[in-house]
Fold:
Amino acid sequence: MQHVFVQLAQVAAAPSALVQLVPILLIFAIFYFLLLAPMRKRQKQHQALIAALKRGDKVVTNGGLLGEIAAVEDKIVHLKLADNVRVRVVKSSVAGLEGDPAAEAGKP
Structure:
């Protein structure tokens, strides 16, 4: 009779596979909502900003250069940093517009 109680106790103590997966799924859900979703939202905003760049916009680059867009090519932007000082910069290196608080804070 004791063997039956011991076997029943062992069966009842073993957690099911579904119960073991719940913490992993919970961690993934937290990871998604705290990290992945905001990062994807920011990436879409940045892509929209890059697509909307035009001549005359004042921008900040990831390297910290402040300048006015003099010309826009397919993947390159010509920045006017000062009189007679122009640099070619890849569009993706533009962090944001000069008045944008996110760009000035250095948030990618």
